[in-house]
Amino acid sequence: MSKSGFYKMIGVLLVLAFCLAPAGAWAGKALKIAIVAPSASNDLAFTQSIVDGIKAVQKERTIELAVTDGTFIVEDAAAAIRDYAQKGFDLVIAHGSQYGGSLKEIAKDFPKTAFAWGTSADTFGLPNVSSYEAASDEGGYVMGVMAAALSKKGGVGVVGPIEVGDAKLFVDGFVAGAKAQKAGIRANVNYIGSFSDVALAAEAARAHMATGADVLTGTAQMVVGAIGAARSRRVAWFGTQANQTELAPEIVVACQVYKWEVILRKILADLDSGVLGGKKYAITLANNGLVIEFNDAYKLPAGVKQAGLDAVAAIKSGKIKPLR
Amino acid sequence: MNDFWTATILVATVASGIRLATPFLLASLGEALGQRSGVLNLGVDGVMLLGAFGAYYAVLKTNNLLLGVAVGVLLGALLGLFYAFITVNLRAQQGISGIGIYLFGLGMSDLLFQKLVGTPRPIMPFAIVRFPVLSDIPVIGEMFFDHSLIVYVAFLLVPLFTFIINRTTYGMNVRAIGENPEAADSLGVSVGRVRYSALIIGNSLAGLAGAALAIELGIFQQNLTNAMGFIAIALVYFGAWRPIGVMAGSLVFGLVASIVLQCKTLGIIPRSASDLAAMAPAVITVLALVVVANRFRQPAALTKPYIRGQ
User: Fold this and answer.
1) Domain ranges of chain A
2) Chain B from 80 to 139: CB within 8 A of any A CB
3) Whole-prediction pTM value?
4) What CATH number matches the domain at A136-258+288-317, 3.40.50.300, 3.90.190.20, 3.40.50.720, 3.40.50.2300?
5) Tens of pLDDT along A206-242?
6) Rounded CA gap, A189 and B240, in Å?
7) Helix (H, G, I), strand (E, B), or coil: what is residue A33?
């Protein structure tokens, strides 16, 4: 090949590459999503639920996922949220009620970035912030019904973190369900004041057992300690947020599992159509964003399980509204 | 309030307070020894975290509790050796290097957990050790003699440490170096060697505290200690650098936490005041600290690196 022929070929190749590259890049463009969350992404609770949700959606479309977990300190989370927005992520998920104040300020600085915040129903009136929440009172109610039906001593106990967000909803729903099943049941609640104090959660569970509770539940990532304490005395446990059966197969009766993918699909569909936010979403039993998963290894009396399934059906049909 | 004053609840509350106090006691006993030799270690929490993870992982893989405890202690000793090198040989500023140890322990324990374990998986916890006659005494037996072996070990270390610090040549050397290292050096006591040993023993106890926590709970999670190590350092000041004082501080902290928990469980403390009540152990400890700190003087050479001839 002559020298001029060689240059012509290079030129043609360059033109072709220039013309084809944008189209190819667009066709295969991965959606960049970041999650900022308070606890470990494998905590079998709150943080894991959102990571699992994104992973479920990843099976359907190309998503480049980045996770900053363990940000119990709000300032650290705020720095991570801002960093992801600066790096051009398409969607930044602030997965923690406590991040709301920071997100409100950060979202204003990045009007072309979509943010999602949960669990909350507040979008701050900003067009680029979506909010999401779990109607955890629904699953809590179902658990409460079954817990009261299962209790032989007439006492159930709840280990909570701080009285906010979906933790409060779950706890209130659980108590409402227990009292609806057995009006005279003792349903004691202990908010330990921390999302992360595993040792204190364990002692809170022991305190419940000392007062005669023979069925326990709890919410947030520190409940691994409470589950351990319940396990040591073979006291039945109802879980929430993620399936906690593997932590104690012999005592976990059932878990309310969050399927965030149900609302994540809607948020991503909005993004596809150019809507960055301004909407509120919720996972419920009715839209299958909340699912009650039973532990088959636990010998649950048929009547108790049926009471739970009846409660699920009644909530789905609107016959029961747990906190209304 | 009447619900609280029943034998069952009182027994459960005291037993809970003792369990909660145990990791604080182990960690603060070790820190007290280090501080008596003149070295402050703000990295106790990081050492506890690595000890906790090491013990947890060893038990997860082998089901051998003794091995788990040994791994926790060994990791503590290694970090103590490293910290001694930094503070004694390199004469680094103790406050900053202690924070470095804390951050190292926090990050490394999390990294190792993520890479080697992943999702929290339960391990076999300590068994309850009961004593003939003693454990059968009504109320007293359930309060004090219905615990795991590590709880008894922690409380037995108090008289042992009191004896070592006050009645042995080694203890006298530790105290002398913490007060006046120049004088001790002039009498032929190796300041470096004594500080090395105090830090290795002290950090071993911090590692043991972490191991005790993880195995007692039967689980490990990111930042499991939840800043217990920093409370342990405060308890050293609370206890005026004396093992018996450190024990008193640990028990006050543990018992106040358990009383608050029990009162919240029984509904004696309303839910609206729940978060406020959760601060009670820390507030009471700080108040007591203010009172104690004014009555006792810290070791004169604390935080000061020793350079012969200066």
Assistant:
1) 28-134+260-283, 136-258+288-317
2) 110, 113-114, 118-122, 125
3) 0.86
4) 3.40.50.2300
5) 999 999 999 999 998 899 999 999 999 999 999 999 9
6) 38
7) strand
